[in-house]
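Hi! If you just cloned this repository, the fastest way to understand the data is to look at a raw example. We've pasted two of them here, unedited. The first protein comes first, obviously.
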Amino acid sequence: MAGILGADELGDVVRLELPAMEGPIVGGGTTHSAVHMPTAREIEQLHRQAWEEGLAAGRQEGLKRGMLEIDRKVKQLDKLMTELALPFAELDEEVVGSVAELAILIARHLVRRELKSDPGEIVGVVRETMRQLPVAARYPRLKLHPEDIDVVREALSLGDEERSWRLEADPLLTRGGCVVETETSRIDATVETRLAAIASKMLGGEREADRAR
């Protein structure tokens, strides 16, 4: 068993000293560098880049949806134009009826506008209606819109007529039209009846032309 040596027993024993350690500490073969933290400017740039990328993606999606909507509208318009190009003979009665109603509505507005600018238009209608009466017709009654009576009375001087015309106000009649009644006949010259006759003649002519093709 070894004991502790005394000072007189050391003799030529040489004292060993460890060398001083300098330089970076290396452990496990890996050198750890300092972690880089982004600056406020870099964070702002990243945020702007992300926003621009999101905006571009949204723009592309919106453009895609817009093109789809345009394509749908173009197809609808193409279908409508195709249907309008069909001959009247191939259109069903519902479509023809709708076209006739639209034509009558437009014409009625035109008549009303014309009467506002020239109320005397009713005079020509009354004169034409009077010509259709039989020569022997007696005591005819002329029904007019209340606002047309004074115009007709002044223009035609009906009070001096041999047939003894009698004017009657009918607020249900549209301005610009009239109805003539006698003991044996009745002539409907209302705006609605005249427009319906025009529309019927127009659509009937189109149908005949289509059948002849």
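Ok, and the second one:
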Amino acid sequence: MLICNGVSINTISEIANTLAETFAKTSSCDNYTPTFQALKRREERVKLNFSSSNEEGYNSPLTLLELRVALHRSGNTAAGPDGLHYIMLRHLSESSILSLLLLFNRIWETQVFPTQWCHAHVLPFPKPERQIQTTINNFTKEQSSFVFSTEETVSVVFSRNRGVFPNPKLFIGRSLIKVVKEFKFLGLIFDQSLRFHRHLKDLKIRSAKALNILKILDPVHHQGLRLCLGAFRTSPVESLYAEAYEPPLDLRRKYLCLNHFMKIQSMKTNTAYSYLFNFSLYDFNSHRSSLTYSQPFHFRIRDLINDLNLNIGRIALCKISEVPPWKVIYPKFDFTLSCYSKACTPESTYRTLYLEHRELFSDYEPIFTDGSKSESHVGSAVVSLSTVITDALPISASIYTAELHALRIAIEHISLSRGKKFIIYTALQSIVSLHSSSHPILVDITYALANHLKKKDIRFCWIPGHAGITGNELADTAARSATGSSERFPIPHSDLKACFKQKLQSVWQSNWDQQTENKLHNVMPVLAQTVPSSSNRREQVIWTRLRLRHTRLTHRHLLFGEPPPYCEIFGPQERQTVPPAERVQTRSMTRRGPQASSSELTLPVPLAIRGTKRRAMLKPVGGSSPKRPS
């Protein structure tokens, strides 16, 4: 409930409208003084007096590539007065994008902005070596349009002198500004000596609270899995992980730590790089016991890499493109063959379409690229009319990196060739994102296209892999047999994510193999994603509880403090686990013997389970009369 001007507002829409009206009124230009509003209108009517040579590269008209890159890198911020989001602009049609580009170029050339674009909030900052009181007086003038709160304004004297010095007397109008010893600004606590002891102490307290939150995430995670699966409250957490195929949070945290560590390793400009890779610190703290000392991040990552037996190799450094946006060459892409579904199109049709394409671009020299990845080999290959170039990559490299490396080899081959027209046939559909990705190899390709291949006509054409096209088959064979020293090749840190997942999956499987007493382990010895046998929620919950062997019938005594039940047919120690639905008939005959009728086995799941309950008469251990389950 919200109270505004003595009126209670209860509905969500009215509360939102009231807040919006209040914010709009607070930020409105009507809050300015009449003198400043007149000055503002007068200054806005003055045109910008700016002239420069149009021969400069940055004065050239905006290109379609620059607009697409700007929209691709824009965030999902709130809409402005026009009500348009960036995500809406990114999904405009081709004609609408061209119209938007025409508008921006008109503004760029005429130097006249739309009226609504002239409204902005400007924050002036004082320059050093100026009189503080003079600066305050300038802020409080009517022309600045700022209103300062005298109660919330404070001043701090920054000095490391140990002597006693008087506090300055600063005024806002006629009000004296209060002098304090420390002040929190933008999350930092500034003290008089700028030693930040108070800030570090506060940071330690907040970090301890964050760590306490991490300690209670596991029970919350377990509760979420129980709700999703419909599992009984007594089900072991290891069974919940296996049934839902969700790894424990401990493995998830290790995965995130490894990714973060490799990302920092690829960025030497990161402030944590010098600390994480200063190996001289390892021996300095080696005498500290792990029982009384929490190891730093680089210690834990080092031990984790050794435990997982990871062969990291060389990590490619992140690169920033040196090509200005107005000099980026937008490659020509041809996706004619992608209009046909590979599942429904025979290879003969693809070969015919390829021959037609070659007839259309017969004056272009064809170059085929391909990448290959198997369990023990990663390679790239380039095949032209007279040359076959191959190169081997580290086993941890992804197929995407192998395909990009083949494109880079092709670009290098073209730069050394005397020809002028080339067409590169590749099975990599993401070549359209050459201009918007930060992949190190893509940055090299963009740089080569902009600086070394200006006078050459290069086109990219997508072709399906393994479709019987001769050049592509030769490139695929060459990539599979590529040899060379793969250790010298640096790979992006993102390629290691698949390796980390595989190693941690092996750790999870190893831990699951040790759960020999777990009832679900007999049914699911290998961790894998399971497909629900029914779309009905109630049936899924029933099957899950039976697979986990934790139901109200078998484990309610743990919740109510009752004696454990006793089965007259199988006894208390007999292991019974209901198998998946597709094997229920064969297993049911084995488990339940000749007493189970064939008609009962073909009943729906809830009815079959009721039949099981009727035949399994349970009674308390040591009791004489059976107790009917509720």
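That's it. A detail worth noticing about the second one: Residues 221 and 345 are 46 Å apart (CA to CA).
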